[in-house]
Write the structure tokens for this entry.
Amino acid sequence: MNYQETLDYLYNQRPAFERQGAHGYKPGLQTARDLDDWLGNPHRNYRTIHVAGTNGKGSVSHMLAAILQRSGYRVGLFTSPHFVDFRERIRVDGEMVPQDFVVQFVDNFMHWNYAGEPSFFELTSAMALKYFADCQVDIAIIEVGLGGRLDSTNIITPILSVITNISLDHTEFLGDTLEEIAGEKAGIIKPGVPVVVGEAQGRVRRVFEQVAAGCGAPVTFAQDAPQVLGVGHEGDVLTLDTAQLGRLRCELEGDYQALNVNTVLTAVNVLERLGFDRLSHQVPQALEQVCGLTGLRGRWTRLGENPMVIADSAHNIAAVTLAMKQLAECDYSALHMVVGFMADKDLQHILPLLPRQATYYFTQAQTPRALKAADLQAMAAPLGLCGLCYGTVGDALAAARGAASGTDLIYVGGSMYVLAELFQLQQNNHL
């Protein structure tokens, strides 16, 4: 198979949550262990950091990777989903896995005649672990796909576990309460392995404390000794006043990144105690260059000026709450909202968070999981969120740009998959 045929096999022949939702979700570790054994347990050849959480795990993973890269380590990075190219998921020192490796890996798997039925994510995570071994990385940052306890990445034994925060999302798989979800995320905590938790209160915090105590895992809550003391903006850069490193400049503009940076700085302190010398000295330049170093995008990404176009990946209650708070503080003449959501999201609680004083351009990503634009429009109208429907993200953005003045703001979001189509347009110079 060539590269495109290989991708077609991965997308269409493997069960995939991202395309099929619940029908593509395959919890459990046995298949992941089988794949790992077949490959010779590649993850045992390098150190790993495991990152879970409801929101922020992608940003935290990329920032940690950038800091370690700047410190001279060869760093693997496994994240999901991708926006435009499948290979965005698997990077070494910011460079995507080569197409030839993807093709050869899948070809080898098909000739193995494995009796099981790996999902898209199980096969992809195994591919990442093998690639990192082949590249002889010093350390790999492994982002959990969904949950933690039963996620296929949970076969690793990291040197550090990081859990960013807990909020309601994917309740059909992880549980209906914050404590149940926390229990699933806490499943990545390993015996004796330090764990950093970004935010946790009350009963959720007690879940982490109890699991960590049962594993003999030292736990640090980033919120207990905040590293980030204040947040501001200088042009298109987020500024963060910190307890130990003075004022930092971060390439990620979203105010909510203050929470993620607080988690990252706490993790850096733990890593330095584990023998990673002088990481903190590289933090300023790493945060200022995080997108260039790692390929991160889609987190309050500025795509245009006059009118300003902001693309943001907030897609659950907690993330949308923070994003809308920052949006309310922006300076613009009029607001245009290009939005689309997956049908399995908790829109009953998400839609009331969106601003009423805006013109809406309802759209849908080209995936079976997407909520139809007309259905979204019908759900939004009783809340005073009014606008027209558009069949594609490109059409919706074009309409918003046609209606906006130079001092207006266009926000594009609601789903990673909406952003994926936006970035595809950008790559093809169609924006």
